[in-house]
Amino acid sequence: MAYKIVEANCTGCGACEFECPNQAISEKGGLFIIDAAKCTECEGAFDSAQCAAVCPVDDTCIPV
Fold first, then answer.
1. Rounded to an integer, what distance in angstroms lies between the CA atom of residue 36 and that of residue 6?
2. Which of 24, 38, 46, 51 could join 42 in a cystine, given CB atoms 3.0 to 4.6 angstroms apart?
3. CB 3 within 8 A of CB 64
4. Are 14 and 20 in contact (CB under 8 A)?
5. Are 30 and 37 a contacting pair, CB within 8 Å?
């Protein structure tokens, strides 16, 4: 599985991009996206997905 960013909820703060251990998050046109092929939900690196943990808005980084 992977996580995705709900565009309607994203503030564009960029906190998630720097926390991703797999460099799966990037900014395109002012919006942040998660590359599902690179996302491991932080398994093996952290106890929880770091994008969701650092996001200031609830329900923005969610599992697909």
1. 14
2. 46
3. yes
4. no
5. no
- DSSP annotation of 10: -
In the numeric block, which tokens belong to residue 11? 């503030």
Counted residue by residue, the chain has a size of 64
DSSP letter for 34, please. E
**5-42, pLDDT tens digit by residue?**
999 999 999 999 999 999 999 999 888 999 999 999 99
> Which residue stretches of the chain are H helix?
15-19, 50-54
Q: Rounded to whole angstroms, how far apart are CA atoms 62 and 64?
A: 6
Q: Which amino acid is at 49?
A: A
64 CA to centre of own chain:
11
CA 37 to chain centre: 13
**Domains by residue range for the chain, with CATH:** 3-63 (3.30.70.20)
